């Protein structure tokens, strides 16, 4: 691996330009712990758009590249070149971009799916395994929730015994959404409707991959054989938007996976249940701080992120137990709103906490101390 000089890891980005879905998530994640510094990138296939956006992030003009090949070549030659590249382009290009950087001994962080299709996946897998100088990670982000990690640890420790059944679902509601019509679907859903870009299956590559990954990540199992029914449910868009899969796992456990992007009202519904010989575990992404442990023939227990009983989850908790996840997001909302206000952006109703509330709070606290001391009502 290229030696990492200095405290921060030098990160380059491919994809995730202005208006992209996942770009800002990667950029925030990279900066969260001050471990990475974003120093270069190509953010669009249009060189001008790419450079403009890169510079808006504070990246030097000469390190905003016109394409990823150029970026790999030049960064590999620089003495202060990138240590890692984060790839967040649509699925069909993950393999070719990753391989280009691996050839230059640059480490990879890639968004899912691993590749657009199996042929690409096999090629990329071989490339990663045959280069001992690089490391690779895939951002199946749900596997990093503290209580998912806790679940994996409990399975590993045999808390629910040998796994006999896994039920996992990830459903969303956009392929058939209110905004989508037969006429605008190609524009709005763009590459998600193009097989050569989205890859083997739209619904499975886009979100089914997360569901399957979660099942194998927590259980440590792999599918041995499957029986799938992939269908188009939507009347508006031409894409495979629903898949039901029966799974036989390699320890003979049975599984069911359902994934859909046309499930009305199914808003980001990712949930998993694992049933073992001694009990079951249940995790739901919409309530991510809790893991339900149901021991066979005993009362259910709700394990909470960061609490004493969920020891392993402490390693992945960024905020103290009792504070639900979202604390950091709320904090960041103040920064974002204040930045808009500093730039005098109009059209917003600014509601960030300010000096008026600051003074009111101080008055309140002072009055409380006076009241407590004098044991009487105090006017503010
Ligand atoms: N991990 C998750 O939870 C999650 C969530 C959403 C999307 N994703 C994945 O992230 C990837 C991107 O999805 P998205 O929804 O952000 O897509 P998007 O279409 O919103 O954004 C893609 C970005 O990549 C840029 N781009 C495309 N080809 C490029 C190239 N060759 N060089 C440089 N830039 C290029 C585009 O200009 C655009 O800015 C997909 O693989 C998707 O499956 C993951």
Outline the structure in words:
With 380 residues, the protein is of the alpha/beta class. It has three domains: 9-139, Rossmann fold; 143-316, Dihydrodipicolinate Reductase, domain 2, CATH 3.30.360.10; 328-374, no CATH class. It is built from eleven helices and 13 strands. It has helices spanning 23-31, 47-56, 68-77, 94-102, 118-130, 146-156, 185-189, 195-198, 202-219, 327-342, 355-374; strands spanning 9-15, 36-42, 84-88, 107-110, 136-138, 163-171, 223-231, 242-249, 254-260, 269-276, 279-284, 290-295, 301-304. The strands form two sheets. An eight-stranded mixed sheet has the order 7-8-9-6-10-11-12-13, covered by helices on one side. The protein has a five-stranded parallel sheet with strand order 2-1-3-4-5, with helices on both faces. α4 links the parallel β3 (84-88) and β4 (107-110). α4 runs parallel beside α5 (118-130) and α6 packs across α9. The radius of gyration is 24 Å and the shape is globular. The N and C termini lie far apart (64 Å). Bound molecules: nicotinamide-adenine-dinucleotide.
